[in-house]
Amino acid sequence: MILNEVNRLQSLSDWEDVEKNVVREPGSFVGSGELNWPDRSEDRLSNQLATLRELANGNLVPHDFAFNYFYSGDNNIDRTVQEMAANLFEPHAEELRRRLYNLAEDAAELAEAAPASDRMVALDHNSAQFTQAIERLGEVQVKLRENNQIDPDDKARIQVEIVSGIEILKAPKTRVEAAKVMLLGALGWLALEFASSGLGMAAEAAYRAVSTLLGF
Fold this sequence. Notes:
By secondary structure, the protein is mainly alpha-helical.
C-alpha cells in the first residue's frame, strides 16, 4: 500500500516536468533562482520526489543546486545546504509522512481484520521494549544512510516509512495495524534484500524489537 502510493506519486511527473513548471533559472546571485511548487499537495509531492531523485542520482549537484535556489545570508556552503534542507527536504518529508500516515490509518480503519490486530494501544514510552525498538530503528536509519547499494528510490521510500513509523510509535495512542504496515514491511524487505550486510542485520534486529513491542 505505502509502496504503491510512493510509486504512484513518482509516476505523476519527472524532472522534465519540474524544469518546465517549477524551476525559474537563477541569475548571477546566490539563491536567485525560484522553485514554484504547485499548490496541490499531490502534484507538489510528485515534483519534489522527482527533484530528490535527480539529487540522489547525481544528475543534480547538491551544492550547486543549493547555491542556485537557496540563500542563507552569505556564501557559506554549509549554511546554504542547511537552508536547502530546512526549506526543501524537511517540509517535503513531513508532508509525505503525513500523507502516508493518513493512508495507513485509513487502511487500518477499513481493513476487515481481527480486533486484536486492529487495536489502539497506549505504548509505554518509558519501557525497555520501547527504548530498544527506537534504538534499533535508529541503527537501521544510520546503516541505510551509509548504504550505497540500495536503489535511490527504494532508499527514499524506506527512509520515509521508518521516520513515519517512529512517529506512529511515539504518538499518545498507536494503531497497531498502522505501525505494522509502516514499519514491518520496510524492515522485512531490508532484512531479506541485504541479509548478509550490516543493514540487513540491523533491519532484522529492528524487526524483532518492533514485533515484540507491538505484540506480534
